[in-house]
TrEMBL record:
GO cellular component: membrane
Parent sequence residues shown: 13 to 184 of 207
Protein name: Small monomeric GTPase
GO molecular function, one term: GTPase activity
Statement: the UniProt record of this protein carries the keyword Nucleotide-binding: yes
Highest taxon listed in the record's lineage: Eukaryota
Keywords noted in UniProt: GTP-binding, Nucleotide-binding
Species the sequence originates in: Amphimedon queenslandica
GO BP: signal transduction
């Protein structure tokens, strides 16, 4: 397989489409259909070369489909997104991560990055950063806090994921 597939997953409303469009188009989207799953082909640099990457902005079908029928089955690497002001999205992220690891034959080294989005809403934070750090250390997964709104760390989150991809390849 030549093309790498990145899946952006997480609860509805956490900002998956906003992060993806911010990354792909460089601006915070105002109008888009939140129910449609979109995928984008882009070039991302890792391992000293640019590679063709497909980014799938999932839209919640994951809940209702068998894993193998969902776009998660296509994912080589995952941005696991929650919103720092949403407890349910944090609970859901941990479930999604377990599901992926289980479905990928308990391969805990699958490239993933935990993304705490809506960092601009710090005053509404419901998930203490220490809790997220503790979880990420336990599962050995990098963590980044982003804001699709202000564009904080959006490019960086994809870059971190590509580092994981590169590391995973080296470990094969
Ligand atoms: P998705 O369902 O995960 O794709 O989430 P969307 O990208 O559709 O975003 C859901 C809502 O959260 C929209 O109203 C966005 O404008 C808003 N949103 C997304 N990212 C951010 C962010 O970083 N900060 C703030 N304040 N709002 C955001
Ligand atoms: Mg969306």
């Amino acid at each position: 397989k030549r093309k790498l597939t990145v899946c952006v997953i997480g609860s509805g409303g956490v900002g998956k489409s906003s992060l993806t469009l911010r990354y792909i188009n460089g601006h915070f989207p105002e109008f888009y259909d939140p129910t449609i799953e979109e995928s984008y082909i882009t070039q991302i640099e890792y391992g000293f070369h640019f590679h063709e990457v497909e980014v799938i902005d999932t839209a919640g079908q994951e809940e209702f489909l068998l894993f193998r029928d969902s776009s998660m089955a296509q994912g080589d690497a995952f941005l696991l997104v929650f919103a720092i002001d949403s407890v349910s999205s944090w609970v859901h992220l941990k479930e999604l991560r377990s599901k992926i690891v289980r479905e990928k034959d308990d391969d805990v080294s699958i490239p993933m990055v935990v993304v705490g989005n809506k960092r601009d809403l710090e005053e509404d934070r419901q998930i203490p950063l220490e809790d997220v750090v503790e979880y990420c250390q336990r599962i050995k997964c990098p963590l980044i806090e982003t804001s699709a709104k202000t564009s904080l760390n959006v490019t960086e989150s994809f870059r971190m994921l590509m580092e994981q991809v590169e590391e995973h390849r080296l470990n094969l």
